[in-house]
Amino acid sequence: MFQDNIHTYFREVYMKVGLENYSELYDKGVYLDNAATSFPKPDCVWEAMRAYMQENGATSSRGAYKKAIEADRMVYEARKAIAQLFNCQRPSNVVFSLNITESLNLVLQGILRQGDHVITSSLEHNGVRRCLKTLERDRKIEITTIPCSSEGITDAENVRKAIKKNTKLIVFIHASNVVGTIQPIREIGKIAEEYDIPFLVDTAQTAGVYPIDIVEDHISLLAFTGHKGLLGPTGTGGLVINWQGDIRPLKSGGTGGDSDYPFQPDYLPNKFEAGTPNVAGIVGLGASVQYLLKETVEKIREEEKEIIQYAIEKIREIKGISLYGPQNAGLVTGAVSFNVQGVRPEEVGFWLNEECNIAVRTGLHCAPGIHDVIGTTGMGTVRIGIGYRTTKEEIDYLTEALSLFVKEKLCF
Ligand SMILES: Cc1ncc(COP(=O)(O)O)c(C=O)c1O
Predict the structure, then answer these.
(1) How far does the centroid of ligand 1 lie from the alpha carbon of residue 370, in Å?
(2) At what angle do helices 126-139 and 100-111 cross, to 10 degrees?
(3) Exposed site from 155, 194, 239, 300, fewest CB < 10 Å?
(4) How does pLDDT run across 368-386, given as a tens digit for each residue?
(5) Which residues contact ligand 1 via a Cβ below 6 A?
(6) Domains along the chain?
């Protein structure tokens, strides 16, 4: 199969670096898009989902028969595991949603009203950015965007300076999904607490790959998505609530109880969980979070850091490539962005896929603001997303391929 498909470029790569190892990688494919969604998932994830689908199949919170009670228990176990992961004392304060986008919308739309002021970062994903822009247009909220350095790092003290009398929320991405930079969440959280302002954190790029503690990090509202670093299936996410203030529910509907009450019940998690939940997905997420608790996020972070630093150094060595963000793995998570000078990122991504069976992401990555900072507006970047299963050998393969592409394209 591989031998039949072999391309001239490719043959050169293989001749240079040894055919055997890389031919296996070519056949298997190299997945470097973990910042979009993690792959592969631990076996326990799909095993738990299969067992639930095949042997149980009941919905949760809605029945009193044995299987429904068992499904309730599985959902509760997932809540408990997530609460433990983020040091939340009450599993009922973990609310499930479809993904982090829904959780972010829930908080932003549920808190901000006409005339309110909100503080946010320059690095936001559209999950926050579009929601805030829509509220600015429709509810006349006021947005302050805190600048960051050319590498994508924010100074927390600038958040303090931006606080006004009508500041009702501070919302920050934890790590950029373009350049990976980790934001000073704990410092911002302390400032938010000092001024009694709720602090919402988008942990899409950090949950499961970087230690987070809602108490130590002073996070009021932690939004998470299940399918990235948490290693669960798509269609899962949620919100961890560590704040007493009022959030209006995004949806109203059945919760399996209080059925004669005309409005959404006011207690957690039912207040924010209208409609039948994604039980199969939540069961898978519960299994992946149990896996993370056993492995420990600290260990995963240490291992990933080594691969990230390795990738930074290998990519940096290639003449004709511009690498963005800090070149220090201690400051970033697994999203590493670069461009081949003078070449559209889509062309690079297409070539890597076509010729080398390497999956990367190209473009703006749904985060237009950071491109103004790194100078890639209108073009975007090639992004690799390193995950817990990424190996040095895969990075070697990528960088050999990139060197060859650059050589061919730029005649270096
Ligand atoms: C920082 C950040 N926020 C939000 C999202 C949206 O995640 P989801 O599509 O799972 O809602 C992503 C995903 O790309 C992200 O990287």
Answers:
(1) 15
(2) 30
(3) 194
(4) 999 999 999 999 999 999 9
(5) 36, 99-101, 125, 127, 173, 177, 202, 204-205, 225, 237, 366
(6) 2-31+297-410 (3.90.1150.10), 44-295 (3.40.640.10)
